[in-house]
Amino acid sequence: xxxxxxxxxxxTRSEPTPPGxxxxxxxxxxxxxxxxxxxxxxxxxxxxxxxxxxxxVVLVLAAVWITFQSLNSNFLSPRNLSNLSVDIxxxxxxxxxxxxxxxxxxxxxxxxxxxxxxxxxxxxxNVNHGVPEWLAVIIAVLAGTLAGTVQGFSVARTxxxxxxxxxxxxxxxxxxxxxxxxxxxxxxxxxxxLVAKLTSYYFTNDAAAYGLxxxxxxxxxxxSYQDMRRRKAVGMPHRSLRWIxxxxxxxxxxxxxAAYLLNRFQGLPxxxxxxxxxxxxxxxxxxxxxxxRQVYALGGSMEAxxxxxxxxxxxxxxxxxxxxxxxxxxxxxxxxRITSVxxxxxxxxLLVNAxxxxxxxxxxxxxGRGTTWSAVxxxxxxxxxxxxxxxxxxxxxxxxxxxxxxxFAAVLIDSLSRRSQQARGRA
Amino acid sequence: xxxxxxxxxxxxxxxxxVIEVLDDIELEIHAGQVxxxxxxxxxxKSTLVKVISGVSPADKGxxxxxxxxxHIRRPHDARDLGIAAxxxxxxxxxxxxxVGNLFLGQEIRRLGFLDEVExxxxxxxxxxxxxxxxxxxxxxxxxxxxxxxQTVAIARSLLxxxxxxxxxxxxxxxxxxxxxxxxxxxxxLRDRGLGVLLISHNMGDIKALADxxxxxxxxxxxxxxxxxxxxxxxxxxxxxxxxxxxxRRTASQEAGW
Lengths: 427, 257
Known about the structure:
The structure holds two protein chains of two kinds.
Chain A: H1 5-14, H2 25-49, H3 55-71, H4 78-103, H5 111-128, H6 133-158, H7 162-181, E1 187-188, H8 194-200, E2 202-203, H9 206-233, H10 241-264, E3 268-269, H11 270-288, H12 290-300, H13 302-307, H14 312-338, E4 340-341, H15 350-360, H16 373-391, H17 396-426
Antiparallel strand pairs in A: 1-4, 2-3
Chain B: E1 7-16, E2 19-29, E3 34-39, H1 45-52, E4 60-65, E5 68-70, H2 75-81, E6 83-86, H3 98-102, E7 109-110, E8 113-114, H4 116-130, H5 146-158, E9 164-168, H6 176-191, E10 195-199, H7 203-209, E11 212-217, E12 220-226, H8 232-240, H9 251-255
Parallel strand pairs in B: 3-10, 3-11, 6-9, 9-10
Antiparallel strand pairs in B: 1-2, 1-4, 4-5, 7-8, 11-12
Helix pairs in contact in B: 4-5
């Protein structure tokens, strides 16, 4: 988003250059020093304003990676990172749905059960009843949408907090799943089927990963450049071309480095491609459309949204429908990863991890702040810790404690930044 | 008879449970006039604003817009008529930036997506007219000062070029200079032909700005005054209830002034 950087850039630009600054090195050195000063001032302002964005998350991720790499040099191997990128997808998709609900300032506790229900519905329809895979997938996903819609409508109509309604949902959908599975207990999926391919297919051609990286960087550049041109045309403050280039450059370096690593193992995983496309698409939905603006507004102040004649009922229902749908899709990916559905599907730490991922990634528990990308970042941290623990033979107990510590730190940062924002407003 | 009032309320009642908050209220707002709405705490001033703006519609009574009967059931209805309100609590979304708050519920779209550039351009134009100190348009509103927030709330109400503006204690949270700015603005709006309903506790502001004053007491009308000819004591005694038995003027009598 376009934030306050512009005005800092403007003030420094308007500073007169000291006379006789001369050509060549002293001048350049001064320019570099000034740029560094500007960057530090910018960071400090952001820190005070409580708008750190995803910086702390990226730092934590770097710390986790460096720690495990120093404990075991296989951690940052292409193979492990490639597996990591597929492992985050199932829970990550569920976490994206959680981000929507958190933006309203609510919590959805039913996503684990819905993911299990969708997986069970798919498995029983496809394997036991011979329904074609594509149809079974659609029915399973729609089952998730329906479950979410029912919950959302109940929340909107009864004004009962979503966590209570979805707690009832947690039990109900879980019971429904056990009923559907019946006595069979575990259903094994077709190893070569569509759903199994979701997490086992890799684009072995190097061009796929590099192509995706190129498209992503190109999109970032085009969107910023277009914005700059339109602002320039109507004489509004705008980013400099250099800023856009640097931003695109950062995205490109990360994207191409990831593509290079993935290509050194088996290429671009289909699961990762689907995950990233969905996250990017839903990010656009949230931040660039009328619907998304309503979600943020409702999370900021429900009363203000109502007085601006937004339909609270419709938005709440739609948000829980999205989270139900994402839970169902995530459930299919989780089932795909182990090519089976059992009575334990969708239970255990899944729900906790999905919520933790969204919060660790920087989505506020108080509503109104966060993006879908926080699900990706948070999931990367959680899965990195899990994978690192597995590689270094650390017991699961320690993994839980550390993940819990990270979650607590994330909540702390969230509430501190919220408080500092409010404090600034009071001045 | 002169042109009918922009907005007229007849016999408006509103009850919350068993409590009658507004009982048989009469009120008229004319174009190019500032009407002060006065009353002690709990007299029903803010409730009346919410009735007119459709946030909590009236239970009984009729509302006329330029002489024809209308129904205001939702905020949307009021906005379509040309009624805008600035609430006492401002009703802003703290997490959205200034542009997002201004256009909330009426975003400008381009190819289906939000047109941030156009919205920001119009915001800038609007705020330029209202105030000298334009806040950072992309900062979340929660980080602005209370004066700046008030400006944002007023700017938002002016966005759709309303014809009637309801201001619920617009200067209560402001400092000396900013209060002056807001009052100047209200003066400008009156000159442009808007009808303004101004709630305030500050008799100085009302004397300086309002043309007429309507007093509410315990949810009922308790007198109408021409601010230029009535004394401050008269108005205050009506607010406090010292002159409880002032015969309530009917709408036809009121039209006679």
